[in-house]
Amino acid sequence: MLEELATNKARTEIDKLSFKKVLWRTLNRLKHEQRVCERSTNMDEAYDLGEEADWNNLVVLKQEVNKLSKME
């Protein structure tokens, strides 16, 4: 950045642009890493996540069944 913009801009402006470029590049790499991790989630882990949601639904269902009358 110093070599590219040395003739056109002040040093403080170059520093600001350099910081922004580093920040954007870091965020892009983090987003990329997150996508890679999400895609490579172990199938067993994914199954466990669904099982946990099912368990929560079962607990709620049991609570609702207790509210029903005998006829219902």
Can you tag this structure with a few keywords?
single chain, 72 residues, rod-shaped, mainly alpha
Summarize the structure.
The chain is mainly alpha-helical and 72 residues long.
Structure characterization notes:
The protein has 72 residues and is an all-alpha fold. It contains three helices and no strands. The longest helix has 29 residues, at 11-39. It is rod-shaped, with a radius of gyration of 27 Å.
Coarse structural class: mainly alpha
- Total strands: 0
Indicate the radius of gyration in whole angstroms. 27 Å
The biggest sheet, with number of strands, parallel, antiparallel or mixed sense and barrel status, is: none
Mean pLDDT: 77
Tertiary shape = rod-shaped
Task: Break the fold down into its secondary structure elements and pairings.
Layout: H1 2-5, H2 11-39, H3 43-67
